Amino acid sequence: MSGRRFVDEDLRGARFDRCLLSGAVLRGVDVGGMEIDSPWLTEPGGTLVVNGVDVVAYVDAELDRRFPGRALRRAADPDALREAWTAVERAWRATCERAAALPPGAVDESVAGEWSFSQTLRHLVMATDVWLRRAVLGVEEPFHPLGQPHAEYVTDGFDVSVFAPGVPAYADVLAARADRMSIVRGFIGTVTPELLAETRENPWAPGHAETVLSCLQTILEEEWEHHRYAVRDLGRR
């Protein structure tokens, strides 16, 4: 489909999941009610031009306003990282309290085909295991069985059989999540500038180096993006 031109097509209600649309051009289109969700939109160098205006900076600033603490996700020194993680925990504490007020079983229900609230927490367990326990700490068997991988993680060198099938009890998910959050808190609590500058192997791209700092920043990005998803879907219930 790359490079194809669509003229006078009716795409109302169409849904595009995990599609590569970078560089796509829309001219003379009716986009009323159109919804775009791109977790990579606000990465350095990203652009989204609407009627000649690049809206990325506005979107980024608005998300920082809506989610206090999100602006710290690119913290680069030990003190700032500790402040950033405190903000993450504060945000998730409030959101989990909100989820606790839902009817029984609602945390395991999908909204519009997205992950359930419980699955989101499970994925963040896995994100901690990938970027801290595996990449930074080098734990031989880093993955909690309640972790939630993406379907596309079934790649060479990644054995998804370590993850438990089925729908686990939400109390067990909360316990796993609390354990992994405490591991991040403990590591950041004692991290030094020298350790942040050390390099590790990218867990998804063997042979490519990451700093310990970039691994921690990836965890922060994961936390805030999935928090945004969770809040979005709680608002749709």
TrEMBL record:
Gene3D superfamilies: dinb family like domain. It holds the Pfam family DinB_2. It comes from the Bacteria. Residues 88-229 form the DinB-like domain. InterPro entries: DinB-like, DinB/YfiT-like. This is DinB family protein. It comes from Nocardioides flavescens. The lineage of its organism: Bacteria, Bacillati, Actinomycetota, Actinomycetes, Propionibacteriales.
